[in-house]
Structures are given as C-alpha cells and as structure tokens.
Design goal:
mainly alpha; 6 helices; homotetramer
Chain lengths: ~120, ~120, ~120, ~120
C-alpha cells in the first residue's frame, strides 16, 4: 500500500517556496501555466515514440519521465494550497461524474467523447 | 491530515478503464496527450483572469477548476500504473534535486531558472 | 506589407524532413504533440512574468520568444502539409464563426466564453 | 501558390479585438496561455487515434482540426502584433539554427534531440 500524506507534501512545497520568497510568483494563474509547461515537457519525451515504444522505456528514460510527472504533481499540489482545493474530494466527484457520463455497457471499446454519443 | 491511498485510486481508475475496454487506448504516449489536453483546459479557466482574480475564484469557478485538477491527477495516476512509476518516490527525488539547484540564500525573491544563474 | 508564401515555407520544411528521413515520425498525431510541446516552452517564457512585464521584453528575451513562436508556426505548417489543410481558408472560416459568436455590441469589454452568454 | 498577407490578417484580428474592447485582455502572457489552450484542444482531437488513423481523418474531423489549427494561427498572429515580432524573419532564423543543429548526414532516420548526440 502506498499511502501518501498530501498535506505533508503540500506543506513541504509551500515551505520550499516561502524559504525562497517565491509565493509572490505562485498565483493560481502562474501555477497553471507552470503545470502546463511541465505537461509540455512530458509530451516532448513521448512525441517521436510509437505507442508501443512508450510502454517500454529504458530505465534512464523512465526516470526522466518520472521526474517530469513529479513536476506536474508538485505544481498540482501547490495549486491545491493556493486555491484551498481538497484534491482527494475532487477526484471522487470527478470519477462519479465520469461513471455517469460513460456507462460501461454503452461505451465499451470506444474512445468517443461522451457528447459524441447520441 | 489528508492521507490518500494512491494505490487504491490507481486501482479504481484502472478498473474503470478495464470495465470499458479502454486499456487499449491508454498507452503512456496517449495518456501524456490526454494529461496535456486537460492542462490546456485548466489554462483556459485562467487565461483572461488577472493574477489577483485567479486567487479569488467564486465557488462555481473554483469547483470547475478543482474538477480540471482532478482530471490531471487521474491521468497522472493512470500513467503511474502503465509505467509502473512510484510517484511518491519521484516527488522526493525531484524536491531533492530542486533543493540543490535552487539554494534558498541564492535565489531568494528571484524567478530565474536555475541555468540562468552564473 | 509582409506577404509570405506559405506553400514555399511548407515545401522547405517538408524538404528539411525528407533530407533527414523524418517523415516517418511526422504523423499528424506526433506533430500535434510537438506543437503542444513548443506551446509549453512558450508558456515557460511568460509564466513568472507579470502581464505588464510580458509586454516589455528585453531584446534577448524577445528573440527567445520569437524563436519559440517560429517553432509553433513551423509545426503548424508541417501539419498543413500532412493533413492537406489550407490554413488561410481555415483562418477565414474561423474568423467568420467568431464574428457570429461574439457580436461586438454584445460582448464589448467582457472576456466570457460565448457559451457563457445567456 | 498560396501567398498570404500576414499584416492584413494581423490587422483583421487586431481590429476584431478593438471592436470588442478586448486588447485589455490580450497581454502577451495571456495570449501565450490562450495559444497553449488551443494546442491542448488540438491534442484532444488526436489523443485516442493511432498515428495511422491521424493521417486518415474523415472530412468532418479534418475540418474540426483545421479550425483548431486556425485558432492557434490566429493567437500566434496576435502575439506578433503585441510583441512586434516579424514571424517570417523568425522562421528563417529558426530554420537556419535547425539546419546547423541537425546536419542531414548525421541525424538521418533518428528522432533524437540535438543535445542527445555526442
């Protein structure tokens, strides 16, 4: 089991920012930009790979990807702090919404978006 | 304290995909694209707001943003499953790297990237 | 007047790819990823700047930004080649759509999305 | 031949914004966000398609993609206006840089980034 204390991570990241006087730069707007920039770096790791290759990364590449994923995770956690969002609750709500939008017996094996179903 | 069991969330998301026969679409390459697409939706929520406004969202907007954040979180968790990445470990490694790159007494109050320091 | 021959740019970029045997990597899917990755790099140039600062770049930063913009432009041109899209025509159609969605006397001074108007 | 007058498109887009009193929202920072948001929408069109499928779009999907590409093009043109960037010149400079970074006889058939070559 991998329990993780999100509050503790959020506090570490917030303290890291405070020690550097960086809260002034970390408006939600700016953090959303930084997160999307990191998502762009993640894309860049995969853009010239086939889908099959993307499933079989060597150890060095996998670590590069894992650290990009950590960047995204960390900006997401900082956004939680700045916006006072409980991400675990939001995840629950979103999974419930998706379960309603995409009933298993209706969408099986199809990648259409929910609003493309008639 | 908000502990969260990442394995359990990952299992829920993986099962959600399996019930819909969606694993075939969820190569790491495709999940990275989906995550970046959601990061684009997060951006869209903030793009015409000032930084100050982005810190003072009304409840409806804050929930919209929280659900976009949940989308990003969930694609990140699915990437962890498909790539067998331990995100908590990656977060620890990345924070350690950043602590070395950005010593507090050197970068205080500055937003330059680490490779812009001489 | 800055007329530009889009076909000629597209041919240069396509030839550049052919000389390197890179067409095999340049599926529309992959080019969309590469374009979005470059958009992420553009974001990174602006993420810690205020809006006012983003309007007053020094020459070095402005050139960095211009080259990121060129990257985006070039991937867009390659997408035109691979998908046989006439971008000038698409631009005309999109401006017409936006003119209908956002009548000037209705949306003046407001940044809401068209579907947020009642 | 598809010559296109970039100045004229830029003027149309700038006038469209002026008629709606939207220049106030169009800082370079915000335009970069909007462009990246549109790049995210482009990604979303391709994320569950195989590379082969992405080359064989039906007409409806191709038009959807073309209009997303137009959105990106238009935000790029507005950025040119706000930053006074000559995109045709930047494209020339960037192609020259890439020709030096990626000599054809060295990189043929390989998708590595230039800094991954020893």
């Amino acid at each position: 089991m991998t329990t993780i204390d999100l509050n503790q991570i959020q506090q570490r990241l917030d303290q890291f920012a405070q020690e550097r006087d960086w809260e002034q730069f970390q408006s939600p707007k700016n953090l959303a930009m930084a997160l999307a920039g990191e998502a762009g770096e993640l894309l860049a790791e995969f853009q010239w790979l086939s889908e099959a290759e993307s499933s079989q990364l060597d150890e060095r590449k996998r670590e590069t990807v894992a650290l990009e994923m950590a960047d995204i995770f960390n900006y997401l956690m900082l956004l939680c702090v700045r916006l006072d969002v409980d991400i675990a609750g939001a995840v629950d709500r979103k999974i419930a919404i998706n379960a309603e939008r995409y009933p298993a017996d209706r969408v099986r094996g199809s990648a259409k978006k929910y609003n493309e179903y008639e």
